[in-house]
Predict the 3D structure of the following.
Amino acid sequence: MAFLSPGSHDRNRDWQLLSRQTETSGPDTTRGLLLAFGYPVVEELLARRVRAAQIAGIARLTPFVIIANVINAIVVAPIFLQFLPVSYVAVWLSAIAALLCVTTFKWLRAKRAPIELASRRALSKAVRHATILSSLWAVVPIAAFASGNTAGMWVASCVTTAMICGGGFALATVPQAAFRWVAILFIASTVTLAIGGNVFMWPLFFLLLSFTLVVVGSVTSTGWLFASHFLAEAELKQRGELIALLLNEFEEKDSDWIWEADARGFLRNASDRFLHASGRSKQDLHAHRMVDLAYSLNDSDARTAVGQLEIAVASKEAFRDIVIGVDVNGEERWWSLAARPIIDAKGVFAGYRGVASDITEARRASALVSHLAEHDSLTGIGNRSWFLKQSEQLLKEQNRYGQSSLTLFLIDLDNFKVVNDTSGHPAGDELLRQVAGRFSELGEGRTMLARFGGDEFAAFGSFVCDQSAAVFAEELVNVTRKPFRIGRRDFAIGATIGFAHLGESNDTIDDLMRKADIALYKAKEGGRGRALAFESEMEREVCERRELESDLREAFEYGKLNVEFQPIVDARSGKVVSSEVLVRWLHPARGEVPPDIFIPIAEHAGLILPLGNWVLKKACAAAARCPELESVAVNLSSVQFMDPNLVEHIMAVLTETGFPPERLVLEITESVFLQDFGSASQKLETLRGHGIRIALDDFGTGYSSLSYLRQYKFDKIKIDKSFVDEIGERSDGLAIISAVIALAHNLGLEVTAEGVERQLQVDALRTLGCDTMQGYYFGKPAASPVQITRIKKEDWEDRSPSTAPSHAPERGRLPALQPDPTGDLQADQA
């Protein structure tokens, strides 16, 4: 119906949507077909041109159509007068004549003034004209077959068949009109066959149908070819306009121009754009070759490009993307050249014609990107990527000449975090810039310097011997010890350095990095603020440490670690009132692994959090089954304390095990406050708010324990074993213990003495008013808290020093998870 109803697409949104989609993405076949049927798949101007051409295609055949209609009318009229009234035939002939007159008039007018643009309305008029004419001729077969006149039926059949064929092809440029014409005559012929009702009706109908389909297919193909031709012409025209526009734009751009050179290479036909870019006059420019311009800039990259250009020009072949440097009025400019050879009519080389682009800004941007990619944005020195690349090149040069004087230094700043935390990141950034400045000044001419990130630096240079490298490392350490002035404050930091000498081995940069990192780790382990050279023994220790770390992971994963409980007794009654949880690792090959070895490994390997949670859960579950114990003490490492989810984890364990929070004592050391100063007070208050008691462990070993008693709230303090050991040996130790007990009692704190191993210590601590005691004197740790509650006072009250356990812990002694004042976990030796 859309094909037979011209202009209906104007009122149909779906067809409009289809047309827009086809215009942008549809194949040319579909677009051409839809355009032939009048759908707006192209811009309106082109559609109007196509419609005008369609109408013009019909107009070209109009004289022949008129003649054919006149002849057919002359043939039909006499025969039809034999069986039809004269008035009927006269009316029919009058209608045919009037329509042909109108057609002739329009044809003459179009011939005098050819139509270049046609609207949809004009196309609709042409379709209606064809519809009316075909309807008049459709009367012929119906009238003839209705009358039953044999001569009339034969003439009508011939005329109708000719009209279907001739009209279809005459109107093929406007498929809607052709379809109307053919459809009306086909329907009329079908009606006549039905009226006739003879035995040949169906064969004749199928013959008529096949003939009509052939005409319809031909009309569709002709209309599509006609419209596709206009689409192709329009596309070619559009491309031509686009090319012209691009050429105009190209000529107007500041950074691009066309250049020409003759057979000798001298420039010619220089455009204004070329003259402006070169900064030279036309006379001066025509006296130069492009190679001469390339020689004007004294630069290593430019000299390399000159050679490439000379080779390309000498070969008389096309070239592209050759970048040359040109001096333009004292300014460095860079051009990208591309050209093809000019061959004259005789086939002789006549010069070059090409394009030049000013890429100076792009080159500068690329250089800036490269600089940023290879340098630290904060300090301006090299970054890790640049450092490794330059080190690889330097190492290759040394290997080529058989030298081995290179040394790699890894530098970590000490106390840098304190600057960030106390004065903010801007102060930390300024500090890093000043450090980089001092390092650069110190290593100028001797080493390459880079910042790896954070407060990590690296240096790489050539030194005649290990001693000179060690001296340089000490200089680096010393230069960081001098105060750094930031704003109105002075900051003293320091540095720790590990370095590795190339020696005579075939080490790679990765090997040197690994060795220097090992030395740096050992230097930190030894107390920071120093420089340490790599030694082969260090690598062996690292390998052993890694093996031990792997074994520790396996032991934790497969439940090969154990917890035991050490009794804590009331100093007055001798009753076991509490217990401290200790952890033990019995290695299948190494035997018992000392806690001062495996606890730092657990921290370094990231195992301390799951291990600490496991210990807490085991302790609470066991103590929940022993109501005789008033409390159980579990050590918290500084790493555990820094966990932001610490409180949630502890409360989850207490809920899971059903252990009352009032019976739990958490022991911490002052290293917790050194590493988590900001949130320590809030966490302690939250824990105490839940009923959990807090003990300050190893009291007296840190330099600021008293200050922590003022800043934070505790429930008890534990006197370190080192003071208990001095009872009976040094009077000042006893005095310190007495002062600590008095201070704690004045603050309302309970006091526990650790490491009690002799009767003399028990008596002294009782006399000084100590609340509770723990140590080997009261019994060995046990796997169950129930076992330690069975210890009787009479079992140890009369024990003499000779029968007490030795000063050193026995084999099988279980370490507790607790941090030392430096922040590293160590075992409780009490």
Observations:
- The longest strand covers residues 331-343.
- The chain is about 55% helix and 15% strand.
